[in-house]
């Protein structure tokens, strides 16, 4: 019998290639048909292995979830960037490879990211998701988030609504 281990840890520079791959797969899966194709491709291509290695080295907090030694997903976290919201922490990104979605890894990574922010003294949490990304909206609502604010992101003159979910722990 084989036992697969699940580990959530701070990313290391050696993870850059795997994170870049997760980013590419997850963003194509989440945003194809929502973000204009040319812009989406450009956004993905900007974040290659070197970009991720630099982000990890620059002390950006990047967490990875590994299953059986394979990086299945990542989260980037830090201080809330939306001054109008009182929550102090923010999950900037949380993505999984498509084949690892729907089995509870995202919830485990979310809880670990939330705990890491709290460990750093950041009270409350905000996460933004595009309104057309129905899977993300369902995920954050299902993890107890309250939809309290809206904003807009513009891609190639296409305005897309985004929704802020908050937790006030």
Automatic annotation (TrEMBL):
Chain ranges of the N-acetyltransferase domain: 6-169
Record key words, sorted: Acyltransferase, Transferase
Classification via PANTHER family: AMINOALKYLPHOSPHONATE N-ACETYLTRANSFERASE-RELATED-RELATED (PTHR43877)
Annotated protein name in UniProt: GNAT family N-acetyltransferase
Species in which this protein is naturally found: Mesorhizobium australafricanum
